[in-house]
Amino acid sequence: MSRKAFQHYSDESLLEHYRETRSLAVFRPLYARHKDALYRYCVQMASTSTTQLLQTLWQNVLEDPPQLHGRLFRNWLFIQVNKALREYSSPIGQTSSQMMPEQNKVIAAIQKLPLLQRNVLLLHMECKLSLATVADIEKMSLKKCREYYQLARQQVETLIYGSEAKPWQVEAIKE
Known about the structure:
Elements: H1 11-21, H2 24-45, H3 50-63, H4 73-87, H5 105-111, H6 115-125, H7 131-138, H8 142-161
Helix pairs in contact: 1-2, 2-3, 2-4, 5-8, 6-7, 6-8, 7-8
């Protein structure tokens, strides 16, 4: 089968097919669908360990494809990455604001958030996981997860724009 033939399969179907055949042609679409989001998430959570962490994750999937038990493969991936990130006890590498180019203010602001708030924000915004899934990953109530998410968004906005409220639109020109 060609690569295009696998485009219409769900992740879970591809994983099951890979488990049966161990065909790299089946694995490649799975990898391609999730590699970028996983990388962006890991870089922002633990930049110094991203390569090792993702290499281990994908190697494990290749060698022993997981049994999902009704869970979505995407959710399973982020749960595994989150577990691995918790094992790294070293502080997350932060880049100083002076070294960050102007266009990276958002990344710098996100990296200044406390770990739990950063994780909730990134899992929801970057990884496109529902807040219910994020709450499950973090083992907290949905209400608490929403609070962390809102707080993280507010803090990022404050770090970028300062504490003084800034208008989103240019003031109307006086006639």
